[in-house]
Write a structure and sequence with these properties.
By secondary structure, the chain is α/β, with parallel strands linked by helices. It contains ten helices and seven strands. It has a single domain, classed as Vaccinia Virus protein VP39 (Rossmann fold, 3-Layer(aba) Sandwich). The chain has a seven-stranded mixed β-sheet. Helix 4 links the parallel strand 2 and strand 3. It is globular.
Length: 267
């Protein structure tokens, strides 16, 4: 597919997800037949409930890590969250920057921005802002942020080199990013690579781990470090929507892996 078609798929799917609760998202693959018609995003997510600043209304279970855990955010920092969704990571980051810092969330799905701003109104915070924009063309000034975070979003961006170039541009000199994302090892079956539903579910949009880290270095970042890595077990009920039983057996035999990684790097 062309890049714009892929972006439209992501917008449509996440607009749908924005209208659901976390519980609905987690049960989207459940049913009396045991057949999954949609991607269950909760298989990637970590538990935020014990974090200071946690906002249950903003937690749709869409992440694949907790980037603020390793982001070294300090009081007074200016933080940018790419693909901020309903605001989950922004509210946690606000606890870390305090009243003297700022948190900006960017998302290109109108429904997510509406939900995020509804959640923001309930907090009374004045130093969180949500803006509409494309991560490949961030509508914010150069050298503006101390820290950039993102949670399970960059894998959905067709042009990852452009995305990391934009992250580099908006970071202040000496600033850094902490990104949780999905990467793969081994070659995904073509049917998975071509499946729009799997793309919106973060799988077929992912690239090889080595390529991912190489892009970061080529964009000029240094001190690139994988802080956390865990394998994501995609249920057979999901894979069988796209693969035959024989193809599934080969998929398992070839030990193709899907991983959540949390990566830091410095400008």
């Amino acid at each position: 597919m062309k890049a714009e078609e892929l972006k439209l798929i992501v917008q449509e799917k996440y607009a749908e997800v924005a209208s659901q609760s976390k519980i609905q998202n987690q049960s989207s693959c459940c049913g009396s037949t045991g057949c999954c018609d949609e991607m269950d995003y909760s298989i990637f997510s970590d538990d935020y409930r014990k974090l200071e600043g946690y906002n249950a209304d903003a937690d749709l279970g869409l992440g694949c890590g907790i980037p603020t855990e390793y982001a070294a955010i300090h009081k007074g920092d200016h933080v940018l969250d790419l693909g901020s969704g309903a605001g989950n990571d922004c509210f946690v980051a606000r606890t870390l920057v305090g009243e003297t810092g700022t948190v900006t969330g960017i998302d290109f799905t109108d429904e997510m921005l509406i939900k995020a701003n509804e959640n923001l109104k309930k907090t009374g915070f004045k130093n969180i802002h949500f803006v509409k924009g494309d991560i490949e063309n961030i509508p914010l000034p150069d050298n503006s942020f101390d820290v950039v975070i993102s949670n399970c979003v960059l894998n959905l961006v067709p042009d990852k080199q452009r995305a990391f170039s934009e992250i580099y541009r908006v970071l202040k000199p000496g600033g850094h990013f902490c990104i949780s994302d999905i990467v793969i090892t081994g070659q995904l079956p073509e049917k998975l690579m071509d499946a729009a539903e799997m793309y919106a579910g973060c799988v077929s949009g992912a690239i090889q781990k080595e390529e991912y880290l190489d892009i970061i270095q080529k964009m000029g970042f240094h001190k690139v470090e994988v802080k956390k890595e865990k394998e994501i077990a995609i249920p057979n009920s999901i894979l069988l929507n796209y693969l035959t039983m024989d193809e599934l057996r080969n998929f398992k035999k070839d030990r193709i892996g899907t991983y959540s990684v949390t990566v830091n790097a410095v400008k």
